[in-house]
Design brief:
CATH architecture: Alpha-Beta Barrel
Mean pLDDT: 97
Structural class: alpha/beta
Distance between the termini: 26 Å
Bound molecules: SN-glycerol-3-phosphate, magnesium ion
Strand content: 15-25%
Shape: globular
Helix content: 25-40%
CATH topology: TIM Barrel
Radius of gyration: 17 Å
Number of strands: 9
Largest sheet: 8 strands, parallel, barrel
Low-confidence stretches: none
């Protein structure tokens, strides 16, 4: 598998499966990751959080209710409290055997299929030690030999700044905070990221031109329809983040 620093410059654009193929399978589960791989997504975005006993699990929300059969805050629960919960039944009963994956389980699956990963580090909760969190996450990525194939993303730019200081070879992407009107180059100057990710609504020529002029890559979320895709193809965007990777890849292939 080529390292990300070679793969990205060689590809004008590629599709990133948002929380796995989260439009067709329960988000942040191994089923959603498998569907993204089958669809041909080159990268899968996942959200991670720490449990009270420092396990790193795939979860978007800081509470369990929306996407699992459990309740409470992940940072106050042990992994043993979480590991047997149903993480797929809320989406469709046929996925009720899905569990909340550990980061290492997701990375092993992605590595086996030579798929890149975008790990989103959620903003820390009050009193959460974000430096310890970064260390745990990077240790696992490193143990799984995925560091050269991983893009770390966050709305919490300070986490990315610290991550880059501690692991200079790690790749980082700042996610634009709603209302933050700074240009990608201004953000990159501060935190030394390689990429900027913004929402479809935030994507402007001013942003993409600035990124391009400064050698930064742009990613845009969430591109789910043909209309979204036609709109975004007018911009210089490298990573197209979608809940429906198969649909977007098929549309891209048929437009050639
Ligand atoms: O990568 C962008 C996107 O994942 C950020 O928003 O809430 O879906 O994690 P969210
Ligand atoms: Mg995310």
């Amino acid at each position: 598998m080529k390292p990300l620093r070679e793969f990205v410059p060689e590809n004008k654009r590629f599709v990133v499966a948002h929380r796995g193929s989260s439009g067709t399978a329960p988000e942040n589960t191994l089923a959603a990751i498998s569907e993204a791989i089958e669809a041909g997504a080159k990268m899968v975005e996942i959200d991670v959080r720490l449990t009270a006993d420092d396990y790193v699990v795939l979860l978007h929300d800081h509470v369990l209710g929306r996407t699992t059969s459990g309740h409470g805050k992940s940072k106050e629960l042990l992994y043993t409290d979480i590991k047997d919960l149903d993480a797929g039944g809320w989406f469709n009963e046929k996925f009720s055997n899905e569990r909340v994956p550990l980061l290492e389980q997701a990375l092993q699956l992605l590595r086996k299929h030579e798929c890149y990963v975008n790990i989103e580090i959620k903003p820390p909760q009050p009193n959460e030690n974000f430096e310890k969190r970064i260390e745990r996450i990077v240790d696992i990525v490193d143990e799984c030999k995925m560091l050269p194939n991983t893009l770390f993303g966050s709305f919490h730019h300070h986490s990315l700044k610290v991550l880059k200081q501690q692991y200079p070879s790690a790749h980082t992407a700042a996610i634009n905070l709603p209302g933050d009107n700074r240009l990608p180059s201004e953000i990159a100057q501060e935190i030394h990221c390689e990429a900027l990710v913004c929402s479809l609504r935030e994507c402007t020529h001013k942003r993409t031109n600035d990124a391009h002029a400064h050698g930064l890559y742009m990613g845009v979320y969430t591109i789910n329809t043909e209309q979204d895709l036609q709109h975004i193809l007018k911009y210089d965007v490298t990573a197209i983040v979608s809940n429906y990777p198969k649909r977007i890849i098929d549309l891209l292939n048929s437009s050639h």
